[in-house]
Amino acid sequence: MAAAGPSVFLLMVNGQVESAQFPEFDDLYCKYCFVYGQDWAPTAGLEEGISQITSKSQDARRALVWNFPIDVTFKSTNPYGWPQIVLSVYGPDVFGNDVARGYGVVHLPFSPGRHKRTIPMFVPESTSKLQQFTSWFMGRRPEYTDPRVLAQGEGREVTRVRSQGFVTLVFNVVTKDVRKLGYDAGPLDTQGVLGPGPPQGLPR
Amino acid sequence: MAEVHVIGQITGATGFSESSLFCKWGVHTGAAWKLLSGVREGQTQVDTPQIGDMAYWSHPIDLHFATKGLQGWPRLHLQVWSQDSFGRCQLAGYGFCHVPSSPGTHQLDCPTWRPLGSWREQLARAFVGGGPQLLHGDAIYSGADRYRLHTAAGGTVHLELGLLLRHFDRYGVEC
Asked: Comparing C-alpha atoms, which of A18, A21, A16 is closest to residue A62?
């Protein structure tokens, strides 16, 4: 009797939220969470996290470093709904209120190996100038009630955003039984550096 | 049946003269393809970049196709529009690119074009805005009636698409 093939594959991702580049802002912390489809379930590791507050270094790099670990394992029967990591960065405004400084989203890589991704961070923006002034003054900026909405495409057509920074993430990906189930994920790509980089002049 | 997963995002766009851009996208496939999960079309957010000139959308794309044949490989067609502070939208460019056919992650740069009109229409576009648009979106991805158009280049749309293929080797297809 032939052994039944696997019906479930595993995706193990570890890595870190390495650093950020926000030229105009300082004293930032970030939160991450994973959004995935119905066929996916996390089996180990943390699905959410909040980092420390970091300030820009005094040297010429003006670097914002979190070095915040990510470690999660998912199991699934279907690549549809591949997990995405949603990052939210917050910091104080001039009055001391905690405001959103950027949201970003990216799919977890699916080929095994080491991947570095630099993702853009954007905040929602009010349409009217008066509302922009009032929200600056009162400290209540527009923000997403649930950042998970960024992982879907629907409903984004009505939002206006302003992109104002970048966050660099590093992932190490290990998969199990993806090939046994018949999927071809392409060449194994180690030390892959993908994703749009920040424009020239900003530190990588 | 062989299956194809397209998982990635429309990252953003560069090279357009306007800022505050958004993109309407859609996927067109041949008759042998069936969309099992995912949305076939959508519209991104409107982004006004503060750093540099690249507008970032980070719009996720997650499509699951089943196919009986290779013809009609999926094509992504894009329309980039700019929105000004009054909420008026103006066409910035049309573009299309085929979904890559080899598995793995790909960085794609899709060039765009916009229809030029007569000199009167070009002058009006410079002062008042507007400008000619295509009546039927299929001219973006098909070559059929293109010879009628006179166009100018727009900017470039950047995409990062990952492709997972399933059971293609069972049918002897090499990609």
From this structure: A21
